[in-house]
Amino acid sequence: MKAIAFIFARGGSKGLPGKNIRPLGGKPLIAWSIEHALTVNRIKRVLVSTDSEEIAAVAREYGAEVPFIRPAELAHDNSPEWLAWRHALNYLLETTGVLPEIMVTVPTTAPLRMVLDIENCLNEYEKGDADMVITVTEAHRSPYFNMVKTNTDGTVGLVNPPQSAIAHRQEAPVVYDMATVCYVASPKFIMTHNAMFDGRVKAVQVPAERAIDIDTLLDFQIAECLLKIREQKQ
């Protein structure tokens, strides 16, 4: 099945200004996602959706297509990325006459992914019976054991109180954190639904060290440290 990859990269980032083109390991952050997507044989095109001419120039330098500039109304802090996904698919529909068979989203915020992670997501999707495949990591906190919420009376309690007492985290149901390593989806599902969990979603587990999600300077510094450790092992 033929897939088209998209990388969505806004120019504005309050958590870490200039994040998407900030140098990591000698190249802009967005370059990592572009290179990962270009390496996957099943991916036939790699497109970047951005509202920034500066990001667009960097993306083209590293081999991605930037055939349009994303409208400003789809690039605010509170703009649903789902709508940016749909906008990108509409561009393909208008310019090629058809939707791609598979949509792959490769976020800039997970530069420590491996190409294998994208391949695994495609493999899971191609098994069928899923509208979308996401990536997850094992959660360090559990809503059944050590995640709390504030009650109306000012006290705190477990997010999901279990039916019986849980003495150890290992006794709680296994839960996962969603990761931003990769998303693989049916374009028709994106165009006809409004949220990920409106459909059938399956997951591929990724090690925590490959799933760092960069949103703040601390996240970026952690990624730099993990990248140095990886390079030392090679």
From TrEMBL:
The keyword Zinc does not apply. One of its GO terms (molecular function) is N-acylneuraminate cytidylyltransferase activity. Coiled coil: none annotated. InterPro entries: CMP-NeuNAc_synthase, Cytidylyl_trans, Nucleotide-diphossugar_trans. It holds the Pfam family CTP_transf_3. The keyword Nuclease does not apply. CDD domains: CMP-NeuAc_Synthase. Keywords: Nucleotidyltransferase, Transferase. PANTHER family: HAD SUPERFAMILY MEMBERS CMAS AND KDSC (PTHR21485), N-ACYLNEURAMINATE CYTIDYLYLTRANSFERASE-RELATED (PTHR21485:SF6). This is Acylneuraminate cytidylyltransferase.
